[in-house]
Amino acid sequence: MVTKTISAQDLIERLRKYKSESERWKLLYQDTLEALQREQEAHAQTKSNLFKILGDAIAARTS
User: Fold this and answer.
1) How far apart are the C-alpha atoms of 60 and 63, rounded to whole Å?
2) In whole angstroms, what is the distance from residue 59 CA to residue 48 CA?
3) Residue 17 per-residue DSSP state
4) Which domain of life does the UniProt lineage start with (predicted)?
5) DSSP state, 3?
C-alpha cells in the first residue's frame, strides 16, 4: 500500500488557491479525513497479517 504524504508547505500552497475560509477548512478536513482513512486501512492490514501469523503458528504447534 502506498501512502501519500503532503508537506506543510504543499498544504499551504493548496490552501492559498481557495478564496473563502470555508473552502480552506473543507480542504483541510478532507485531507485529514483521507490521511486518517489511509492510516486505518494500514492498521487493519497489519492487524489482519498478525492474526494470520498467529493462526499459522497455532496451527503448526497443534499439528
Assistant:
1) 5
2) 16
3) T
4) Bacteria
5) P
